[in-house]
Amino acid sequence: MKPQSPLLRATVPARRLIRRSRLLQIALVLAIWLLGEGLVRLSGLPLPGGLIGMALLLWLLLSGRLSVFSARRGADWFLADLLLFFVPAALAVVDHREFFGLIGVKILLVILLSTAAVMLVTGLTVELSLRWRQALGRAASSSR
Amino acid sequence: MAALHPLLANPLAHGVFWSAVTIGLYLLAKRVYRRWGYWWLMPMALTPVLVGVVVVALHAGYGDYISGTRWLVLLLGPATVAFAIPIYEHRQLIRAQWPVLLLGMIAGSVTAVASSWALASLLGLNGVLRLSLLPRSISTPFAMEVSGDIGGVPELTAVFVIVTGVVGAVIGDVLLARVPLRSALARGALFGIAAHGAGTARAHQIGATEGAVSGLVMVLVGLMNVLVAPLVMGLLQ
């Protein structure tokens, strides 16, 4: 048990409450996001506020200032239906009628083939270098 | 919006209507996919098509539609924050294997730019359109930044990013069924690098490790491209 400052000890009931309530955890994630957006506005950094918020939450977790149980259920709520948040943006195509012709087919072909190529190259690079590293590790440990 | 019911002139009713259409059709698509399971019925592909049919059938434009549903897209912000949890929970794996991930990210980024350029040229897509296609493998905020830097149109890039996400989430599954990738690291990186948010959402459904790796790779590859793009452009000029 780490010695806790009186200030930290005073937050214990609040922490206990957050661990039990998914709604409060959702509010916590939202608050961290808003903080990230605020920091981006103030500093003028060319980065999305959600990213700053993610770095902030990761720092809180890694430094032990926040327990993962105080945010996990809230985070899961956002991640479970992540796909839904993309749907409205995808509808932008409705206003680009020129894409519903030959040029659209061409663009789709570029996207389809290029995406497949990127996936194959990345997947195979990671998989093969992982196996290679593991083989190296085994060779090093058996020669010892 | 004049063609619709006068009640929908009220901004609140308007928002509730389009949000209900979107969420309702999303839930329907999820059920349909669970029932029949064909890859082309994946909610990521099916939902925009269904919603698109309603938007066009009601003679609403994209501006009409998005003004009522922008809050859903805004939730991508807190969802990005939420990715700190899976990344934190898989920190050991990431710490142990970061050189492998970095290698995959470099290989993937080079492939993305080179294959987009080559395929676009091959099909006779030139100029602004080709430039706008280059950064579509990275997630929206980063991609729009890069697109502007290299002389593309950020709004066009945003549309391509979304299409890439949808296409990637769908073909990622098709590829995984045929290419034997044994490690969750490779499966996650594949989605995170090529299909950003939508791919990461799909990876998260496949497994927690895949989702964490995908989320991390998506964020890092976006950062990497934002930093590298001006340098590459400087070298080319």
UniProtKB/TrEMBL annotation, chain A:
Query: Which topology term describes how it sits in the membrane?
Result: Multi-pass membrane protein
Primary localisation category: membrane
> What highest taxon heads this organism's lineage?
Bacteria
Q: Which residues cross the membrane?
A: 21-39, 45-62, 74-93, 99-126
One matching Pfam family is LrgA
Q: Is Plastid there in the keyword field?
A: no
InterPro entries hit by this protein: LrgA/CidA (IPR005538)
The record's subcellular locations are: Cell membrane
Q: Which UniProt keywords apply?
A: Cell membrane, Membrane, Transmembrane, Transmembrane helix
Protein name, UniProt field: CidA/LrgA family protein
UniProtKB/TrEMBL annotation, chain B:
Q: Where in the cell is it found?
A: Membrane
For this protein, the record's InterPro entries field holds:
CidB/LrgB
Bilayer topology term: Multi-pass membrane protein
Keyword Cell cycle carried by entry = no
Task: Name the Pfam families on file.
Answer: LrgB
TM region positions: 12-29, 41-62, 68-88, 100-125, 156-177, 215-236
Q: Which UniProt keywords apply?
A: Membrane, Transmembrane, Transmembrane helix
Chief place of localization: membrane
Q: What is this protein called?
A: LrgB family protein
State the species of origin: Pseudodonghicola flavimaris
